[in-house]
């Protein structure tokens, strides 16, 4: 599925949608085409249209706070779908760096992707106690970082709107 970056009226990134949805927003005059994908055209029976890559909404949408939701799949995306202990990409699960039984919470900073083997070896210990090191420290990604790095497709047209925030 072709992905399109959606910008607010002030050119700040707010989401990613399908090319079909973006085309509909343009057609209904709710958005304008900012960049098109020159390698692809959208066709009807008798007409061709540019495929959107970046669109900008006509009206400003007030968004009080944009955050990445903590879900199992989003943690896997942040960790590139690999175990942070051994690098395996098979039989993945979530590990609490500080175990729940010892007061560890289900937060971005305490959850890591782990394969079942490493998670079992670590057990009810911290990584230091189990003598297992993490390849990266778990962190909460910013919304812009998540869109830029983990949303699937990122076009070169997106880069100037997805600066480090």
Q: For the largest beta sheet, what order do the strands appear in spatially? A: 2-1-4-3
> What is the residue-mean pLDDT, rounded to a whole number?
90
- Give the termini separation: 27 Å
- Give the C-alpha Rg: 20 Å
Q: Name the beta content range.
A: 25-35%
Query: How does the major sheet shape up?
Result: 4 strands, mixed
DSSP strand count:
6
- List the helices and strands in order: EEHEEHEEHH
Low-confidence regions: none
User: What oligomeric state is this?
Assistant: single chain
User: How many H/I helical runs?
Assistant: 4
Shape field: elongated
Helical residues, percent:
10-25%
Helix and strand composition category: alpha+beta
Helix-strand blueprint:
Layout: E1 3-7, E2 13-18, H1 19-27, E3 31-43, E4 48-57, H2 72-78, E5 92-96, E6 111-115, H3 116-122, H4 143-150
Parallel strand pairs: 1-4
Antiparallel strand pairs: 1-2, 3-4, 5-6
Quick structural summary:
The protein is α+β, with helices and mostly antiparallel strands and 165 residues long. Helices cover 19% and strands 27% of the residues.
What does this structure look like?
- The chain has 165 residues and is α+β, with helices and mostly antiparallel strands.
- The protein has helices spanning 19-27, 72-78, 116-122, 143-150; strands at residues 3-7, 13-18, 31-43, 48-57, 92-96, 111-115.
- The chain starts with a strand and ends in a 15-residue tail after the last helix.
- The relative contact order is 0.18.
């Amino acid at each position: 599925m072709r992905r399109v970056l959606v910008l607010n009226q002030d050119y700040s990134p707010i989401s990613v949608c399908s090319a079909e949805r973006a085309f509909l927003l343009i057609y209904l005059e709710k958005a304008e085409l900012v960049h098109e994908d020159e390698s692809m055209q959208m066709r009807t029976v008798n007409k061709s249209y540019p495929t959107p890559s970046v669109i900008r909404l006509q009206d400003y949408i007030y968004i009080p706070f944009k955050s990445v939701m903590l879900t199992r799949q989003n943690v896997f995306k942040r960790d590139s779908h690999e175990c942070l202990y051994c690098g395996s990409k098979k039989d993945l699960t979530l590990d609490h760096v500080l175990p729940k039984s010892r007061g560890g919470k289900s937060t971005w900073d305490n959850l890591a992707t782990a394969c079942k083997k490493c998670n079992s070896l670590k057990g009810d210990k911290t990584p230091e106690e189990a003598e297992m090191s993490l390849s990266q420290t778990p962190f909460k990604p910013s919304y812009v970082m998540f869109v830029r790095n983990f949303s699937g497709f990122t076009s070169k047209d997106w880069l100037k709107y997805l600066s480090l925030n």
